[in-house]
Write a structure and sequence with these properties.
seven-stranded mixed sheet; mainly beta; 161 residues; elongated
Length: 161
């Protein structure tokens, strides 16, 4: 096992709540391309933020079509494991739209320092097909009370299939 630690940064949120990115946080584009298909007849798209092993995760999400912001919200999964948000955009608006987000992850228990974080996409409870799923297996997750988090910056582009 490597003794190398994941990068961590200070957080300013309360340690009793899951971390949530501040509205002023700059969402830096990642290098990995994520693309998810949505069906014209599939209904509204729901974004699900998930974490296992009792990790706390919160994020700032922005759905954009070019420079137009279609939806912007924050959500946290905390130790409950997941949180959902129904996108405020039609299927036509989603075609080519990009969801940009920053997640902040920490552990509410010092003895838990690894786990998985996922952002998943559904239409009427059916998983949307994605190229390169938005999934992260994390190690060396910092203890929330130490005021440190692991930041994850990502984006996914939606295409009508």
């Amino acid at each position: 096992m490597s003794s190398k630690k994941s990068p961590a940064k200070k957080k300013s949120t309360s340690t009793s709540k899951p971390p949530v990115a501040k509205a002023s946080t700059t969402l830096v584009p990642p290098t990995t391309a994520h693309v998810c298909g949505v069906r014209n007849s599939g209904g509204a798209v729901t974004v699900r933020l998930m974490a296992d092993h009792m990790l706390s995760v919160g994020g700032d999400f922005k759905l954009q079509q070019g420079t137009q912001v279609l939806d912007h919200w924050k959500m946290a999964a905390g130790t409950s494991g997941s949180a959902d948000h129904a996108l405020a955009a039609s299927i036509a608006e989603l075609d080519g739209a990009t969801l940009v987000f920053q997640l902040l992850v920490c552990s509410p228990m010092a003895q838990i320092n690894e786990g998985n974080v996922d952002v998943q996409y559904f239409q009427n409870g059916v998983s949307c097909p994605c190229v390169s799923p938005t999934h992260w297996s994390l190690t060396d997750v910092p203890f929330c009370k130490d005021d440190q988090v692991i930041p994850i910056n990502s984006r996914v582009t939606f295409r009508v299939v």
